[in-house]
Amino acid sequence: MTDYLKGLNEAQYEAVTTLQGPLMVLAGAGSGKTRVLTMRIAHLITNLVDPFHILALTFTNKAAKEMKERIAKVVGESEARSLWMGTFHSVFARILRSEAHYLGFPSNFTIYDSQDSLNVIKKVIKELNIDSDLYKPKKVQARISSYKNNLITVKAYFNNPELIEADERTNMKHIGLIYQKYVEACYKNGAMDFDDLLLKTNELLTRFPEVLAKYQDRFRYILVDEYQDTNHSQYLIVKALASKFENICVVGDDAQSIYSFRGANIYNILNFKKDYPDAKTVSLEQNYRSTQNIVNAANVVISKNVQQFKKNVFSDNEEGEKIKVYRALSDADEANFVAGNIWELHHSQQRKFSDFSILYRTNSQTRAFEDALRKKNIPYRVYGGLSFYQRKEVKDLIGYLRLLVNENDSEALFRVINYPARGIGETTQNKLIVFADSQNISVSQVLDNLGFYAPQLGLNNGVLTKLSDFWSMIKAFQVLLKTENVYNIAMEVAKRSGLIKFLKDDQTPEGISRVENVQELLNSMQGFIEEQQQLEDGNPSLSNFLENIALSADTQKDKEDDGTDKVSLMTIHLSKGLEFPIVHLVGLEENLFPSFMSSSTREELEEERRLFYVALTRAEKQVYFTYAVSRFQWGKITDAEPSRFLSEVDTQFIEFINPAIESRFVNHSGLKSNIFDDAPSEPRFFKKQDPKKKLSRAENPEPQSLPKNLKPISTAKIINPSGQSSEDIEVG
Ligand code: ATP
Ligand code: MG
Questions:
Q1: 577 touches ligand 1 (CB under 6 Å)
Q2: Which of 34, 87, 228, 626 is catalytic?
């Protein structure tokens, strides 16, 4: 047997060596799904399938990179290079670039990240004179995104009276119009947003059979990781591409479906059997990642979900330590405990910092942990959040570069036209926009023919000269595209546009850090050039650079991800698929986790519970749960109540660190009870129901009451410095 097959168990072996026909691997966390997928690709190549014919879709770029490296170890670098492997968005952006002309888009179309698209939506709302208090841009954006992910185009929307009525009922009757104007603006700008990358791919494959045939023939073997989190649009793309050869392998875990808010559809797993009645299904039961204690605890929690496929997951690893629970007095106390614990284990167990992760429900929880880690000089890395490429100074320079590649990108144009200030104010900009609209041409066309249009623009000579100078500068930069590499172009732009000088004039620490960020962006271009030179089909062009950063912007690791020894901080969503020896799952409080926004229906709560399951199953050896009894949130200190999920982990799997709490719940026979059972003697701890919460625990019955033979024996006093109760909290 070939070496790479030796380490597989029977079920894994079967999945890896079944090369033809549809195959679904449905299995719990840590059971080797990703490993199976990786080895299966290696096996395909070993069995003389040309890597050119293999397409593998992963959830993050990082996962794709790691898988590729592992495959290269088995089949060699050069074979692994021609594999198509990446996220849905990156793979289909690449296809759309080659085929853009079919859809009337330029091949150098700009990719808008969610911030760009939000800006366009805001402008549209403003232009239509619609009240942005009623039509909150983020909400509108989410609605448009959900239409796109369900393949509801503007035309389909207006042909669907039910949708229109539904929007009217929720006082959002202008949504259709905003949607239409938004799509028009993107088209005019030569831009696609993230959802377009899927929507337009679907359009491409449905409207142009020759294109479909081409890619069906190319991708004879298709593999998808994290299949439970594909949305409808992704599902259709995969289905269309696979329909000729039907060599499709999907792996997933319904218990880890955590993106339904972004349209992920758990039923894609169910549909698989319907779409391919002959599909083979393999289930993997052994978890290789975690200790028995962690696997058993996770099983107990997830079994509380009504909506699930029953699975048997077990671990043969050591039983392991119990999950430790720390009850903090405040968010700062919580962060100090975690930092202290990491420091202590780093020394006592000779653990590397990279063995640790801190997982939280929302990005805003990061700051306290960063402060605490910094105080102890513990190196850390924050994943997600405001990414490097979304910082203003970085986006400003990128704005120039985007404009060079795509003149029609008016988002980019107006970002830089007066930055640094060059006397082209808002009035002038508005005149340009209005005039271009009236002539039905783009602003760049107006600027191209400024002399011709000058009499109609109503601008004075001084302003006209400034516009003309600006546009000549852009044109001069564009000439560089033909001869210079990305780095040189960006350097020229940064210097000659006045950007660097402008930033350097600010000598405050923030100003200095902004200059450093621009420098870092330039460095990353050097890295990009080298990386592309090593690839067989590498493409070091500016437009490829821009595509890479646009696609990594929303989920990317920070620029500091240089493989050095650091603690990882991230949201649970980002941790999917990853593993760490030691996990700190923090902020386990009602309204935080489960989130106050996601606890009103059973479906929402079940998704939060899956999220909890994902977090817990990232751990290999040890887990720490923490929660605070008061927390600084929304500008106030508020009382917090322990998360219901804590009470769902059976007490046999957990151990309490704070003695005061532990003793409270030891009864006379020495048995510990569930500390989160209702304890009426402690009013602050178990406060009145939050009126904003539509579904209380009573309505969502879980084991609640204190066993009869058990009484709380001591109560820790909880001080709430502000004296405010949760009823005072104004949310968002
Ligand atoms: P998740 O659901 O979290 O994505 P997964 O099912 O994809 O998990 P993997 O990440 O592939 O699981 O595997 C989990 C861990 O178990 C990895 O460290 C992997 O190397 C290891 N592993 C998987 N199969 C085996 C095996 N047969 N023998 C030893 N280790 C294994
Ligand atoms: Mg996996």
A1: yes
A2: 34
Cα(5)–Cα(39) distance, integer angstroms: 8
277, amino acid identity? P
58 lines ligand 1 (CB under 6 A): no
**Which residues, 6+ apart, have CB-to-CB distance to 150 below 8 Å?**
232, 233, 263
In this structure, the strands spanning 654-656 and 286-287 are: unpaired
Nearest CA to ligand 1 atom 27: 8
Q: What is the tally of helices (H) and strands (E) in the chain?
A: 32, 19
Helix (H, G, I), strand (E, B) or coil at 188: helix
Total-model pTM: 0.80
Give tens-digit pLDDT for 7-23.
999 999 999 999 999 99
**Residue 359 structure tokens:** 């997982």
> Helix H segments across 82-174?
88-99, 114-127, 137-149, 154-158, 161-169
Is position 34 annotated as part of the catalytic site? yes
Distance 256 CA to ligand 1 centre (A): 15
87 counts as catalytic: no
Tokens of 642: 């322990």
Q: Which helix (H) or strand (E) holds 502?
A: helix 499-504
Pick the catalytic residue from 99, 196, 226, 396: 226
pLDDT tens-digit readout, 501-557 = 999 888 877 788 788 888 888 888 988 898 888 877 788 999 999 988 888 754 444
- Please tell me whether the interface predicted TM-score (ipTM) of this complex is above 0.95: yes
Would you say 27 is a known binding-site residue? yes
| 159-163, 304-308, 372-376, 400-404: least confident range | 304-308
CA angle 223, 196, 482 (to 5 degrees): 95
Distance between CA atoms of residues 431 and 434, nearest Å = 5
34 assigned binding-site residue:
yes
Q: Which of 13, 62, 251, 289 to mutate to test the pocket of ligand 1 (most atoms within 8 A of CB)?
A: 289
